[in-house]
Design brief:
Belongs to the FAD-binding monooxygenase family. GO terms for molecular function: flavin adenine dinucleotide binding; N,N-dimethylaniline monooxygenase activity; NADP binding. The protein is of the alpha/beta class and 539 residues long. It folds into 2 domains: 292 residues, FAD/NAD(P)-binding domain; 214 residues, no CATH class. The strands form 5 sheets. Strands 1, 2, 3, 4, 5, 6, 17 and 18 form an 8-stranded mixed sheet that branches. The radius of gyration is 23 Å and the shape is globular. Bound molecules: 3-acetylpyridine adenine dinucleotide (N01). 3-acetylpyridine adenine dinucleotide binds next to helix 5.
Amino acid sequence: MPLDTAAAPTLDALIIGAGFSGMYQLHSLRDRLGMKAMVLEAGGGVGGTWYWNRYPGARCDSESHSYCYAFSEALWREWEWTERYPGHEEIRRYMNFVADRLDLKRDIRFNTRVIACRYDEAANLWRVSTETGEGFSARYLITAVGCLSTANIPKIPGLEAFQGEWYHTGSWPQEGVDFTGKRVGQIGTGSTGIQAVPVIAAQAGHLAVFQRTANYSVPARNKPLTPEFKAWVRDNWAAIRETMHSTVNGHPFTIEDRSVHEVSDEELKAILEKAWERGGLQFRANFRDVLLDEGANAKLANFVKDKIRSIVKDPETAAKLAEIDHPYAAKRPPIDTDYFEAFNRDNVALVDVRADPIERITPKGVRLRSGKEAELDIIVFATGFDAMTGPLMGLNIIGVDGKTLAKEWEAGPRTYLGLQVAGFPNMFTITGPGSPSVLCNMPVCIEQHVEWITDCIAHLRANGIARIDTTGAAMEDWGREVERAANATLLPRVPHSWYLGANVPGKPRVFMPYAGGMARYRRHCAEIAAKGYPGFVLE
Ligand code: N01
């Protein structure tokens, strides 16, 4: 692994990843600050998560008019979404439109996977090496690697000898997969699995869905956008943006300021029926205490469980699907198009692997502890990601005095504001652990991070400051705030949540995202900058 990159050209900034974060960061540093910046991207095109996630049914759960850049009214007005939720192809088209419009591709190196980053203290430069053996040097290193980009493929014995095909949803073949007439097994019923089931079921000969933890889901109610709605979006950039900036999770809707306990059972039913018909993530926004109060949450949870039992015709399957062991929305709440309905098809079977766990993969399929075996042609792993820390660990980052990020985060990630780690000067982590990130509509929190980092670098340059670092004490303080914010909600009460790292064996159990709300976080970061960056060391 060539780490001696002293001879490589020196850039002002190196950005890793060409998704929403990396593209906007490149534009901001290059076109706003006039810096020499470059993006290194492992994929063959722009899009980040959307470059890789092409599985059947892959579609964003944020509404299209909020799942895009909002920093430029011109860009906003020029692009027109076609559906309420954008599908993966449409998002890639959008990302390419932005990249072309802002002339970004000339400074993005595609098919270039970063395998090591080392801070060279003497030169005050980051030395970065790629899989292809290239080396780059830059003053600032900005990770834009996403939170959900390192696949979690469970180590089930026997996979290597499986004679069929297998795929992880997060690195789906570009040419697609033909399920026609095939016996398919899908492991996982998170947001991804719930999107994929109905689409695979419509094509496959037979689909076995291996469910370990039953999950809630609310109908997405996807539909084509009307010309009136499109015109409204085009003409209301400022107002929509303002709503996204002022709400807890960066969505274009506000959370009703009322408690579940304030309404009668009849009123509650009427409100929830209406919300169910409207569909989408807004379902949880009807009350302020859904994620704060167990009793309030249980009422919503029971409503969804009743819906599942009313949709699924086979009582045994319905019971297994509705046997949900955690509060509603305490794991990321999926939304779906005909997920529960898919279990009414003759070619779909639910396999309860909580009751009868997967023991091994055999050459012919999946064998359960009871000895039952499902013969399969294709296995789909919808088993999620080594979230938040996984993508950063994959960069093999080494800071001052040879300290590695892996060692620093052995007991769980520690950051200041999710933006910096002590001992890794001039390195910024967009949507890093400790920031709202995955609890927020991603483009909104990405824009805030990119703009904060850009302003910070502008400040350093204007004041002749060569290095910015943070301190252990600042990280401790922020870590306590992240913990406090999480503990004020029901979120950390789910033992098997990826928010806690619980889906990856051996990963430390630390609640990683900041649950204090995007608007509050935005104000806090702005205040830190306005006060001259307390908690950071500028020298
Ligand atoms: O992954 P997950 P995902 N044996 O970790 C199961 C975002 N997203 O890809 O719950 C059997 O949520 C696991 O079971 P359990 C969104 O933030 C966004 O679905 O651990 N099962 C679970 O059912 C989301 O939260 C969109 O018991 C095993 C599933 O696999 C995040 O991505 C769309 C297993 C994993 O669920 C991740 O979602 C889709 C095993 N050994 C996703 N190992 C958009 O809106 C794991 N499982 C853009």
